């Protein structure tokens, strides 16, 4: 998939510093977080150098946790790159982030990244959270793949180079139906609160956010690599809030 030109990813190289409540107890002071916006290529070394700069700046500002976007590892030039360049969680690329987390005592939200399936099938789009010891605390594989084709304008078929997270077969009712269909990943406890994991197009499916809130999430995360056109449509605040609040 080529995200250059008119379909350029809605990411830019800057670090946003914000505050998040470290707990639901008002006695606790807010903790600083860093949110990284990137324009990545298929050159993972260049992408790492950009990420390394963000890590250093976050440490200088005494951030407790740093958030990287979807495709923080790379954005392939061709559709096949998303498959052939995929790697697993033990790869040296992720080891750099783990080592940096340990060195600086920093939690990180990474992803999604192109997570290689050892069976040889399509990779997952995986969002992981690593702690200040560099250990994985949670992994979420994107449930909702973004397939869009508008003749003459844009064609983005995520299902051609990525596969959705695993599914179960039991059914219940309403939001429980949604949860039973998927192997849900509970919110992970972090220094800034309980974090609910999602990725990009998951934003369009409020059941996931509702489930995370009911499961105790204080913060909902949607690391994203939207194109310019689709990103403008999905991040319209007046459209999003009613969807998240429904039910």
Task: Describe what you observe in this structure.
By secondary structure, this protein is an alpha/beta fold. It contains seven helices and eleven strands. It has helices spanning 44-60, 81-84, 92-104, 174-181, 206-214, 228-234, 237-245; strands spanning 14-21, 30-37, 65-67, 107-115, 124-130, 136-141, 147-150, 154-157, 188-190, 193-197, 219-221. The protein has a six-stranded mixed β-sheet. A three-stranded mixed β-sheet has the order 9-10-11, with helices on one face. Helix 1 (44-60) packs parallel to helix 3 and helix 4 (174-181) packs across helix 5. The N and C termini lie far apart (36 Å).
Task: Describe the protein's topology.
Elements: E1 14-21, E2 30-37, H1 44-60, E3 65-67, H2 81-84, H3 92-104, E4 107-115, E5 124-130, E6 136-141, E7 147-150, E8 154-157, H4 174-181, E9 188-190, E10 193-197, H5 206-214, E11 219-221, H6 228-234, H7 237-245
Parallel strand pairs: 2-3, 3-4, 10-11
Antiparallel strand pairs: 1-2, 4-5, 5-6, 7-8, 9-10
- Side-by-side strand order of the widest sheet: 1-2-3-4-5-6
Tell me the β content: 15-25%
Helices, by number, come to 7
Helix content: 25-40%
Mean pLDDT level: 81
**Rg, nearest Å:** 18 Å
> Which blocks of ≥5 consecutive residues have pLDDT under 50?
1-12, 22-27, 167-175
Q: Tell how many strands the DSSP assignment holds.
A: 11
Shape: globular
Report how far the terminal alpha carbons are from each other. Answer: 36 Å
For the sheet with most strands, the description reads: 6 strands, mixed
Order of helices and strands: EEHEHHEEEEEHEEHEHH
Indicate the structural class: alpha/beta
């Amino acid at each position: 998939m080529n995200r250059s030109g008119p379909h350029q990813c809605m990411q830019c190289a800057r670090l946003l510093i914000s505050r998040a409540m470290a707990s639901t107890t008002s006695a606790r002071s807010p903790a600083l977080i860093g949110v990284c916006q990137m324009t990545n290529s298929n050159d993972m070394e260049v992408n790492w150098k950009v990420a390394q700069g963000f890590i250093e700046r976050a440490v200088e500002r005494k951030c407790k946790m740093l958030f990287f976007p979807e495709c923080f590892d790379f954005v392939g030039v061709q559709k096949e790159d998303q498959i052939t360049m995929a790697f697993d969680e033990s790869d040296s690329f992720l080891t750099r982030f783990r080592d940096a987390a340990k060195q600086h005592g920093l939690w990180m939200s990474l992803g999604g990244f192109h997570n290689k399936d050892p069976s040889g099938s399509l990779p997952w789009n995986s969002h992981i959270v690593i702690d200040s010891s560099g250990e994985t605390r949670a992994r979420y594989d994107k449930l909702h793949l973004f397939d869009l084709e508008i003749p003459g304008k844009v064609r983005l078929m995520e299902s051609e180079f990525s596969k959705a997270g695993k599914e179960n077969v039991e059914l219940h009712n309403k939001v429980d139906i949604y949860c039973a269909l998927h192997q849900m990943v509970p919110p992970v406890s972090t220094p800034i609160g309980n974090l609910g994991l999602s990725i990009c197009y998951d934003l369009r499916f409020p059941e996931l956010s509702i489930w995370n809130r009911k499961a105790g999430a204080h913060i909902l995360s949607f690391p994203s690599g939207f194109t310019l056109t689709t990103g403008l449509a999905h991040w319209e605040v007046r459209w999003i809030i009613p969807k998240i609040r429904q039910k």
